[in-house]
Write a structure and sequence with these properties.
Elements: H1 2-11, H2 23-51, H3 77-91, H4 97-121, H5 131-151, H6 172-179, H7 186-189, E1 198-200, E2 208-210, H8 227-248, H9 254-273, H10 276-282, H11 291-311, H12 320-337, H13 344-347, H14 349-372, H15 384-390, H16 395-415
Antiparallel strand pairs: 1-2
């Protein structure tokens, strides 16, 4: 809302109002406002949850410190959602298709996660929403995101038109337009905006994959039916990453800390993808109007850090599925929007490790039970963070080390822009 107000003032040349045209400035504001909301609104919200006695029912897993967590307020994901959406509504261009898609993702998965928490807390059903219903909700979101990314007229990319080294001089006024995704610069270094099902492949010189090649065995030379491959892949990515974030939410501050680190990597990737100068220098596809996503992700970073204030050990509030499913979905959809979804296994390596540990544990247990009549385990407990707890490591140390690993993975992800 403030974005439109200051844009209106800028048209009448009010001094200083032009600063709202800068993505970097609005991103900083979004981060700060989200951080403040999460910290101050979080305190009020936690007090309300305590008065209403809305607390977590903890399963008896034989883990150190687990029983002490019983009764800790949950549904804290509502703090994260509020801290994200309010700055976005204030500082983003709400007509931007990518912002609309991110807001829809946040609300949709927020409702899905809230339903699960509501059943656990108020219906006293520890199982919550059934996995099948969660999966259906994630699939529906994937269908919407995939369809928008494939068919919407504003979901376009621009590919390189001239060699990387031929960078022309840009005046200060032009830099402002570049930062704000003015398509006037597109023809200079890049082709005209066009629809494409291309994405980025890490570590390869010719680092782009067009999903349409996967349908050529059908005789589809023009990629007319590539959405039959593209949309299911999007559905899978959203379900996988969202569930991975959900599994990561098992220790105080773990999901919040790792997601904040992942979001920093996404924000940087989005910024360079939406800036013709950086896109040209790094030899990556330029995505018009993607800069608004940087503002959204900045709000996510601020919300996560603000929530970490209350969620770090010992946690005063849990995010619940309301937060974990939402954060996972935001990470997945934002990576899809910037055409970097194949970087998710690196960037979200902590999520991936948690998911793989569960898959391995369950699969091996079922296999050994069928073969030997007795189920055996690979890990002491799954997900992976509980394995280290069982080995006697303090949960605070586990969380900090996982966050450090997440930082390293984020740096490696950014390095893939040059390592080819």
């Amino acid at each position: 809302m403030l974005y439109y107000f200051f844009s209106w003032l800028h048209e009448y040349r009010y001094p200083g109002t032009g600063i709202f045209q800068y993505i970097s400035f609005r991103s900083a504001l979004a981060f700060v406002v989200a951080l403040i909301i999460a910290i101050f609104f979080g305190k009020y919200f936690i007090n309300v949850l305590r008065k209403k006695q809305i607390g977590e029912s903890v399963r008896e897993l034989g883990l150190a410190g687990q029983s002490e967590k019983a009764g800790t307020p949950t549904m804290g994901g509502l703090i994260i959602i509020a801290a994200i959406l309010l700055p976005v509504l204030l500082f983003c261009d709400l007509k931007n298709i990518y912002i609309i898609l991110m807001i829809f993702t946040t609300i949709w998965l927020g409702i899905l996660g809230f339903s699960d928490d509501y059943i656990k807390v108020f219906k006293k059903n520890k199982d919550g929403l059934s996995p099948r219903k969660k999966l259906v909700g994630q699939i529906l979101l994937g269908l919407v995101v995939g369809s928008v990314m494939y068919f919407h007229p504003d979901a376009v990319i621009c590919e390189k038109k001239v060699p990387t080294k031929q960078v022309t001089e840009v005046t200060s006024n032009e830099l402002l337009r570049v930062e704000n995704q003015d398509n006037a610069h597109t023809p200079r270094l890049f082709d005209e905006p066009h629809h494409s099902s291309k994405t980025t492949i890490p570590f390869f010189k010719n680092h782009e994959l067009d999903y349409s090649v996967l349908t050529r065995w059908l005789g589809d030379k023009t990629g007319k039916w590539s959405f039959l491959i593209f949309i299911p892949i999007i559905v899978f990515i959203i379900a996988a990453v969202s569930n991975g974030a959900n599994l990561t939410d098992g220790l105080d501050g773990l999901a919040t800390g790792t997601t904040a680190t992942v979001a920093v990597g996404i924000a940087l990737l989005a910024y360079v993808s939406g800036n013709v100068i950086f896109a040209n220098y790094l030899d990556i596809m330029y995505i018009p109007n993607i800069g608004e996503l940087v503002i959204f992700i900045s709000a996510v970073i601020g919300a996560c850090i603000g929530f970490y204030w209350w969620n770090c050990y010992p946690a005063q509030v849990f995010m619940g599925d309301t937060g974990s499913l939402t954060l996972g979905g935001i990470v997945a959809v934002s990576c899809i929007i910037i055409r970097k979804e194949l970087l998710i296994p690196i960037l979200c390596g902590v999520y991936l490790a948690q998911s793989i540990s569960v898959i391995m544990q369950v699969s091996y247990f079922k296999y050994t039970k069928k073969r030997y009549g007795e189920g055996r385990r690979i890990f002491k407990m799954a997900p992976l963070h509980h394995h280290f707890q069982k080995k006697g490591m303090h949960e605070s140390k586990i969380v900090q080390r996982f966050i450090v690993i997440s930082m390293l993975l984020a740096v490696l992800t950014l390095a893939t822009l040059k390592i080819r």
